[in-house]
Design a protein that fits this description.
The chain is mainly α and 126 residues long. The chain contains two helices and no strands. Helix 1 packs antiparallel against helix 2. The longest helix has 19 residues, at 84-102. The N and C termini lie far apart (82 Å).
């Protein structure tokens, strides 16, 4: 046990150590930069922008609707009533097909798209 007047830790080798005082922040080293140029160099006379650079920036115009709307989906055989589970499963097949296309796996993409079409047209999952 420590006797009166003794600091804790006396006799175990810490007698000569003092508590550290507040530290002073070390100033960051100064970096010197060259002064900015008075003017930037100009390209030599006779140099022009590339030929594909437009002279005037065109204003944005709405894109013309050129989507082919002549395709109609096949009718459900037997007038099958589809529920939300059918649509969710079909979306999952389409998602799988998209993933397969990212890996350039067209047979798997085709298989999943055919499964989605069969489900949507017949109501039967393969």
């Amino acid at each position: 046990m420590a006797e009166e007047g003794e600091e804790g830790g006396a006799g175990i080798g810490f007698e000569g150590l003092s508590q550290p005082g507040p530290s002073k922040p070390t100033p960051a080293p100064r970096t010197t930069y060259p002064p900015p140029p008075e003017h930037l160099p100009q390209p030599p006379s006779g140099m022009h922008a590339p030929a594909n650079t437009p002279a005037v920036t065109p204003t944005a115009q709405p894109a013309a609707a050129t989507a082919d709307t002549s395709w109609t989906p096949p009718a459900n055989s037997g007038n099958v009533a589809l529920n939300s589970e059918h649509f969710q499963k079909a979306m999952k097949y389409c998602k799988y097909a998209g993933s397969a296309l990212q890996y350039e796996d067209s047979p798997t993409a085709i298989d999943n798209l055919q499964k989605a079409l069969k489900l949507l047209t017949t109501g039967q999952d393969s």
